[in-house]
């Protein structure tokens, strides 16, 4: 039988105990598949926890939205795992600069820059070293992966990207100037640099998934193809289908 390791968000402790009692738990080092119980936020935590360990992750929804998760059922778990379809995703690498130096972090959903005070941020955007927006006045701006395109990016009116698309979404958050700029689609190889203008007067934070760096002066973002994580989905309900269906939902 396939060796499993179960991990759970606090609200899924009862489900965790039931599954371990039924299927056992090989532990994080010996398991062939990691089963994550929770919502999308917990899935992101699990992806970060198991980065570089080469273990596929199968999520079951015990949270609110659960876009990245499968439905929760105990009875046919092994059959579902045997028939599961795979989706390979890559994170973004964020290098955030402030007065203390540079900090690196990874993001499987998005890297976002957000104003810290009542004053709008002023941000210069460069793509592959070439200035594209000399001064974006906004609440913030983000770069999203395909896997994250239905999360914060979609809430900010950014495009939904198919999971296999070699693209990144660059999306403004409540842009004031240029008022009509709605963002851009970038090739996955693009190197994006954000330079914070008037950073002492208009402080900005940078967030990679749930990791925040305050008072940044510049942020570099690239896709990290050296890291590949595999998500498992029930047959017929893979991530491609979910992303496609999201574009036709109410």
Structural account:
The protein is α+β, with helices and mostly antiparallel strands. The protein folds into 2 domains: about 100 residues, Probable inorganic polyphosphate/atp-NAD kinase, domain 1 (Rossmann fold, 3-Layer(aba) Sandwich), CATH 3.40.50; about 130 residues, Tumour Suppressor Smad4 (Sandwich). Helix content is about 20%, strand content about 40%.
Strand order within the widest sheet?
A: 6-5-16-13-8-9
Label the overall shape: elongated
Fourth-tier CATH superfamily name of the largest domain: Probable inorganic polyphosphate/atp-NAD kinase, domain 2
Could you say which structural class the secondary elements and strand pairing correspond to?
alpha+beta
Kindly state the number of beta strands: 17
The Cα radius of gyration reads 19 Å
User: Which second-level CATH architecture of the largest domain applies?
Assistant: Sandwich
| Count of runs of 4 or more consecutive helical residues | 6
The total tally of domains equals 2
Instruction: Report the sheet with the most strands, covering strand number, pairing sense and barrel closure.
Output: 6 strands, antiparallel
Question: What order do the SSEs take from the amino end to the carboxyl end, as H and E?
Answer: EHHEHEHEEEEEEEHEEEEEEEH
Q: How much strand content do the residues show?
A: 35-45%
What helical percentage do the residues reach? 10-25%
Mean pLDDT: 94
CATH topology-level name of the largest domain? Tumour Suppressor Smad4
Intertermini distance: 41 Å
| Poorly predicted runs of 5 or more residues | none
Under CATH at level 1, the class of the largest domain stands as: Mainly Beta
